[in-house]
Amino acid sequence: MKVVIERQGGVAGIRRRRERDDADLTEAQRAALERIVTAAPTSVTGGAPDRFVYKIEVIHGDGSPQVMRVPESAMPEELKLITG
């Protein structure tokens, strides 16, 4: 499984995108990702102006993607570190 996390927004609007294989994630990052995927938010709620929004794309073994958008306030710290 591949994980792509893109940080969007903020004051400057600079995007940061990182791609990782799930085997390269720490145990804490895998657990945080599992919580996000289980909650399955597909759109942003609770966002605020000039705050970051994270687009998380999980590409499963069969090639099917699952895309979620998560506001900065709901993004686990463990996953924010990936886009650092």
UniProtKB/TrEMBL annotation:
Pfam families referenced in this protein's UniProt entry, alphabetically: Emfourin
Full protein name: Protealysin inhibitor emfourin
